[in-house]
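Sequence design from tokenized structure. All designs in this work follow the same two-part layout: the structure record, then the generated sequence. An example of the structure record is given first.
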């Protein structure tokens, strides 16, 4: 007795091929996610919600009068958070550049991070060049 073979392109063959392809795509996705730089994961939780709220108050008090909310999208144009921090801490507010406490400037950076989609975490963003250089808006 001869064995019956399914014709190529049968529903079962297509289903088996689709299942194999899905498993391959899933495996590749897992490998890619595992390969994400650790600094990206860390940067997404480098500030607290309390710090971002302080930054929002500092921004509204010292920046929004001239810049409105346009600075939120401008943050993304900087190479990293240190560059942004450097500009705002040395040249803003324009009438008294660099006059705010360093903590206000770093809190504003935390606010910009929150507004640009970073998740808050359990530790405050420090005014640390090495940390800030790793954060790419």
């Amino acid at each position: 007795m001869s064995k019956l073979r399914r014709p190529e392109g049968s529903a079962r063959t297509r289903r088996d091929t689709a299942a194999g392809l899905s498993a391959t795509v899933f495996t590749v996705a897992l490998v890619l996610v595992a390969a994400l730089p650790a600094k990206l994961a860390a940067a997404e939780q480098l500030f607290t919600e309390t710090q971002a709220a302080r930054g929002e108050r500092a921004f509204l008090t010292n920046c929004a009068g001239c810049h409105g909310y346009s600075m939120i999208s401008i943050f993304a144009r900087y190479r990293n958070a240190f560059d942004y921090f450097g500009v705002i801490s040395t040249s803003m507010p324009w009438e008294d550049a660099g006059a705010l406490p360093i903590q206000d400037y770093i809190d504003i950076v935390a606010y910009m991070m929150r507004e640009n989609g970073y998740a808050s975490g359990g530790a405050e963003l420090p005014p640390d060049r090495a940390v800030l250089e790793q954060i790419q808006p």
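The chain has eight helices and no strands. We note this feature because it recurs in several other targets discussed in the main text.
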